[in-house]
Design brief:
The protein is mostly beta strands. 0% of the residues lie in helices and 48% in strands.
């Protein structure tokens, strides 16, 4: 007996990309293949925005290994380390002034300590400081022979210099009120393996954590001799420039990439692997964690920032076995912990910068251009090519053969532009030629825009794709789909 079934409805897309091999069991809110798509607060998905170039004159040298939003005196500066120099801007990255020219062309790090900005580098350049009042960086940390080091952090009244050129697993420390004149006599070392080194440090819940390549330690100031104690708490460590704090529903946590190419969320005691769903290559999506470059400097170029406006952690990485430049970004949504990949992310560093009471996400590309992200409809003169593949849609009754009737897609009234609708049936390896073109025009109505596609065909498994390469100023937003099918009775089936 032939009878109609209720539609299979997608009314949430919040679980993001999943690259596991068990595609048949994907949830309706998951996708086996999406790119340049983001989740919105109302559980819909939308094509992401692009970026807008800020500075008319590019910064010199290999650009942008570090960016920092630095408020000093009455001014607020966007500071960028680039090539062998450091430059600063008071107009959100439109024009820059040089404030240092003596750095090695290497990975740079910028850290605030009290009212000054500290500059360090992977090349063990002499630490410098800048007070933000114009002028240039001073080599004042050299007074008293401050050690050349990779990283710096301010903690409980100390300025700590980590991973010095002579002691890669140790740190020097001085009273931060004397940091510019201190003799830096004090030293502490974590007794890790000889091939290990400190890769970063961070503060979480007022506690200091120090990461090496292979271990994570909690370090505590106890006074006496030695002044510090340490406790190994994890058998993994973070990659530099990927560690950022973000507030989730249960409180503030640290997110970062470990050296096995896993994205870890750490709350001070426990951790979870946020990237579990996108670890393995499913041959459908161009992104997977195992595709992140591990050769040479491929992993080191990874860097992250938190978009506070969107409550998202953004990690830029190099994709490809031999790639040494960032190509893609993976978004970790702070509300759902779902992940979404972006392509054409050719940036060396990012920073959240404030201006006139608003926060902007800025990025520096390889040519020394500063860009405002989440702005415009192109990526550095390249179209934002988006695609969303649905999970497999099918009748879960065993052995029942189904006939598709139609697909209804609902869009917000602010959507505009043209989308392409394609499909594939059962386990076809390719999507059909263009099945339908969906033309959307934004309206002032609150009524959702519905587009229906007739799909009369018999199959057990159905999957659809929507995509667009247009440079529409108002990206489309898909809120819901209804897939209508009819049960044809018991048959051999495809499952």
């Amino acid at each position: 007996m032939i009878r109609s079934a209720q539609p299979i409805t997608q009314d949430s897309f919040k679980r993001g990309l999943v690259t596991g091999s068990d595609i048949l069991n994907n949830e309706k809110s998951q996708s086996p293949n999406c790119m340049n798509i983001k989740w919105t607060f109302d559980d819909s998905i939308t094509k992401r925005l692009g970026s807008s170039t800020m500075n008319s004159t590019a910064l010199a040298g290999t650009a942008g290994w570090a960016m920092f939003d630095f408020g000093a005196t009455s001014l607020r500066w966007v500071v960028v380390a680039h090539g062998t120099g450091i430059s600063a801007s008071t107009n959100l990255g439109v024009t820059f002034s040089s404030i240092a020219t003596t750095r090695t062309q290497s990975y740079q790090y910028l850290t605030r300590s009290r009212n000054v900005l500290i500059a360090t580098s992977d090349a063990y350049d002499q630490p410098l400081y800048w007070a933000g009042s114009g002028g240039t960086f001073a080599i004042a940390l050299a007074v008293g022979s401050a050690p050349a080091c990779k990283y710096a952090i301010n903690y409980q009244g100390f300025l700590i210099l980590l991973n010095s050129s002579t002691r890669p697993r140790g740190f020097h420390y001085a009273d931060d009120s004397l940091q510019l004149t201190s003799a830096w006599p004090d030293f502490f070392e974590i007794p890790s393996s000889a091939d290990d080194e400190i890769t970063c440090a961070f503060i979480l819940s007022k506690r200091l954590y120090v990461s090496t390549r292979y271990r994570l330690y909690r370090v505590t100031f106890v006074g006496g001799n030695p002044d510090w104690s340490y406790l190994e708490i994890k058998d993994w460590g973070y990659v530099p420039r990927t560690v950022k704090k973000i507030t989730l529903k249960d409180g503030e946590v640290v997110v970062g990439l470990d050296w096995s190419r896993r994205l870890r969320v750490f709350d001070g005691s426990d951790d979870l692997i946020a990237s579990d769903n996108i670890e393995n290559d499913n041959s459908l999506n161009e992104f997977a964690m195992e595709k992140i470059s591990y050769a040479g400097s491929g992993l080191i170029v990874s860097h992250a920032e938190v978009d506070r406006n969107e409550q998202e952690y953004r990690l830029n990485v190099a994709i490809g076995a031999s790639s040494t430049e960032t190509t893609h970004c993976i978004i970790l949504n702070g509300r759902t912990l779902a992940m979404y990949p972006y392509s054409n992310q050719l940036f060396q560093s990012m920073v959240m910068a404030e201006s006139a009471g608003r926060a902007y996400l800025l990025a520096c590309d390889r040519s020394g251009r500063i860009h405002t992200l989440n702005s415009g409809n192109r990526d550095i003169a390249i179209s934002v090519n988006d695609v969303y593949d649905s999970p497999y849609l099918y009748n879960r009754l065993p052995g029942v053969v189904s006939k598709s009737q139609k697909m209804d897609l609902f869009f917000t009234p602010t959507s505009s532009g043209t989308l392409i609708f394609q499909e594939r049936r059962d386990f076809s390896s390719v999507f059909s030629e263009v099945r339908s073109r969906i033309s959307l025009v934004s309206t002032n109505s609150l009524t959702q825009i519905k587009h229906s596609v007739d799909i009369p065909s018999t199959q057990n498994i159905y999957q659809y794709r929507v995509s667009s390469s247009s440079n529409t100023a108002d990206p489309w937003e898909l809120t819901r789909t209804d897939y209508y099918l009819t049960n044809m009775g018991i048959g051999k089936g495809a499952l």
